[in-house]
Amino acid sequence: MKILKAVIVLFLLSPVLISDHAYAAEQGQEDVYKKRMELYTKVEAVSQIPWYYIAAVDQYERNVRQARRDLPKAEGISGVYFKPEEWAGLLNPNLEDDNPVSIQFFNGIGFDGNGDGKASLKDDEDVLQAFAQYLLSYGTDHDNLKIGLWNYYKRDKTVAIIIGKAMIYKHFGRLNLDSHVFPMPLRSNHSYNNTWGDARGWGGRRIHEGTDIFAGYGVPVRATGYGIVEMKGWNKYGGWRVGIRDINNTYHYYAHLSGFAKELKVGQIVEPGTVIGGVGSSGYGPPGTSGKFPPHLHYGMYKDNGYTEWSFDPYPHLKLWARQERANLKKK
């Protein structure tokens, strides 16, 4: 009987315990955002490079490290990674060198950013100030910062992604941009299953790189998160489609649309719930082809790791975002 009572009490308390745990996790992440912003504004004060460029580089590097196995995961609040030989200098016999004088002698990128007399690869402020000093050698204006980024990464797409992140941070003026919504209004009549990886035959054998969400013509299609519109136009497979890059290096692909939102354009900043178009059945032919399949939204997600981009299953994310949105609506 005592065991039964204990189980009942635990069951009744579990929502409270879960809620408290979620709140603690949320507060912990808010503290991280606060510390990062303090760091970015410090770097801006020293280098005169706007904080949102520093934040964009830091976030890009963090995302890349999360997506790759050949790079160590970030241990501090900063995500920027330098190889020890880059930091200390290629010919430096001591790859753990933290002496700014000897690092400079060996042409290392290491920098004493906090004035403690050491240029430590394990110090977040030193690392971010070092990257800022590299960019500062090109200038502080937008065009010269882009040149500096290209000379560092040697990849056009990386530069475009970082600049996109910078514009998002500048637009919203904050770092906490992780909330999401379902790509259609929850009240709409829609249905979907996990169709990622299914075979597709039109245009040659290939796998289905997304989840199909079936709904009526014209049902609003919404941006699922904060991001920037990278692509808008026609594709023979996807019909009228939109591509949005979010703050976490994820590319969100919306295809088979009936059309686009009136003011939507490439380079536009969006947020969760921004209407980008409507459900349709466009695609599988030249521009304007429609009606070869039932109306639905093809929703795909792709991750960039600094070298290439690959598709991953959006279904679990869609289920999660729907649950989160319902929970948030109940709070209002």
UniProtKB/TrEMBL annotation:
UniProt entry keywords in alphabetical sequence: Signal
Signal peptide (from-to): 1-24
Coiled coil: none
Pfam families, per database record: Peptidase_M23
MF-aspect GO terms: metalloendopeptidase activity
Domain M23ase beta-sheet core as annotated: residue spans: 207-305
SUPFAM superfamilies: Duplicated hybrid motif
Cross-referenced PANTHER family: L-ALA--D-GLU ENDOPEPTIDASE, PEPTIDASE-RELATED
Protein name: M23 family metallopeptidase
Protein source organism: Mesobacillus selenatarsenatis
